[in-house]
Amino acid sequence: MIESQYLRKSLNVLHDSFFLSEYNVLNLFICGIGTVGGKLIEQIRSQYEQLKEHSRLKLNVVGISSSKNAIFSRDGIDLDNYKELLKTSESSSPEKLRDSILEMNIFNSVFVDCTASKEIAALYQSFLNSNISVVAANKIAASSKYENYTRLKDTALRRGVKFLFETNVGAGLPIIGTINDLRNSGDRILKIEAVLSGTLNFIFNEISADVPFSETVRRAKQQGYSEPDPRIDLSGIDVIRKLVILTREAGYKVEQDDVEKSLFVPEEYFKGTVDDFWRRLPELDADFENHRKQLEADGKRWRFVATMDGGKTNVALRAVDRNHPFYNLEGSNNIILLTTERYKEYPMQIQGYGAGASVTAAGVFANIMSIANI
Predict the structure, then answer these.
(1) Each residue of 16-34: pLDDT tens digit?
(2) What pLDDT digit, counting tens, does each position of 42-59 carry?
(3) Residue-level pLDDT at 335
(4) What per-residue string of b and e applies to 160-185 under the rule 16 or more CB within 10 Å gives b?
(5) Which residues pair with 343 in a beta bridge?
(6) d(CA 142, CA 64)
(7) Beta bridge partner(s), residue 315
(8) Measuring CA to CA, how many Å separate 22 from each of 50, 58, 95, 118?
(9) Residues 213 and 288: beta-carbon distance below 8 Å
(10) Average pLDDT over every residue of 141-166
(11) How, if at all, do strands 163-164 and 312-321 pair?
(12) What HEC string does the chain produce?
């Protein structure tokens, strides 16, 4: 017996089965049209015809929402014109967005979250319950309370849909997928060591006798590496979230509060307004320069390192020498070392761009393709 709420979706599936649709169809709801969401839509538009021709896959974008507006079309939205369509559409909210998507009740649906919104992340459970897969660039759900994280994963498994969030860590780097593959093949993750913040790596690569600490932070913001409020990066919150996600995917139970953190900017600088922060930041330059000179004399560099060892987690600014794999990490790149039962003597190493809208969007796109089995 088919529940009434799934009747329309079931009829669509039967129709496609009997009449043998020429293409496999994936129906996408894309939430967030900022840097990542905008790049993702560009990539889908540019790949649309090639995927139809070579993979018999039709990516049907049936919904697009910004922070204020949303548009929907069962037949697919014109991706050349979606920004103009959004401007003239009705206002939306997370609740309206959820209700509209569930009411459309389209089979083979994927909700794609390219926001950093807590309210949007709170919608995942409803979508998974309704057999809608979720692909999230948003880190909030996977790093939330462990109970919520496991509930989302268990719901996806039970419903036969996907909850994927590869780009939560390392942008487009295949870190989470690799950890999953290792565990699924019977390996056990023993230790994780990683540089997971492109922003902080950029800062500690830029710092020099001529470029003080405060200037490196300003450059990180100007070049689009940091958050609009750089204190989010400097506080280590972003790295802690990423480490929690990796530790959970490695098979350990951990909460954000369990992560031991050693910060390199005094707590008082995180209070007050952003303007207060920028005004006071140069006060730290002299102390950083004194330490930097000593590091240089010792042949070492700073790296903000996230570590998981047997389930215990910590993040800290560390000095690494020339023999360490992290020493020559360039620009805003990320690197991760995975020590496992099989990769014990020589850890597996994954390295590359760990920030940037294009590579993050490409990682989201790859998650979508994995749902389509392409």
Answers:
(1) 544 456 889 999 999 999 9
(2) 999 999 999 999 999 999
(3) 97
(4) ebbbbbbbbbbbbbebbbbbeebeee
(5) none
(6) 23
(7) 261, 306
(8) 15, 10, 35, 39
(9) yes
(10) 98
(11) unpaired
(12) CCCHHHHHHHHHHHHHHHHCCCCEEEEEEEECCCHHHHHHHHHHHHHHHHHHHHHCEEEEEEEEECCCEEEECCCCCCCCCHHHHHHCCCECCHHHHHHHHHHHCCCCEEEEECCCCHHHHCCHHHHHHCCCEEEECCCCCCCCCHHHHHHHHHHHHHHCCCEECHHHCCCCCCHHHHHHHHHHCCCCEEEEEEECCHHHHHHHHHCCCCCCHHHHHHHHHHCCCCCCCCHHHHCCHHHHHHHHHHHHHCCCCCCHHHCEEECCCCHHHHCCCHHHHHHHHHHHHHHHHHHHHHHHHHCEEEEEEEEEECCEEEEEEEEEECCCCCCCCCCCEEEEEEEECCCCCCCEEEEEECCCHHHHHHHHHHHHHHHCCC
Catalytic sites, residue numbers:
242
Nearest-angstrom CA–CA distance, 11 and 106: 10
Question: How far lies 124's CA from each of 26, 70, 310, in Å?
Answer: 18, 17, 30
Burial 87-115 (b: 16+ CB within 10 A, else e): eebeebebeebbebbbebbbbbbbbbbbb
Q: Which pairing describes strands 163-164 and 260-262: parallel, antiparallel, or unpaired?
A: unpaired
Tokens of residue 93, six digits: 């909210």
For residue 18, the model assigns a pLDDT of 46
Tokens 């689009």 belong to which residue? 224
Q: What is the pLDDT of residues 111-138, one digit of tens each?
A: 999 999 999 999 999 999 999 999 999 9
| pLDDT at 374 exceeding the cut of 90 | no
Q: Which residues contact 108 (CB under 8 A, 6 or more apart)?
A: 24, 25, 26, 27
The answer to whether 196 touches 169, Cβ cutoff 8 Å, is yes
- Which are the contacts of 333, defined by CB distance < 8 A and separation ≥ 6? 195, 198, 201, 351, 352, 353, 354
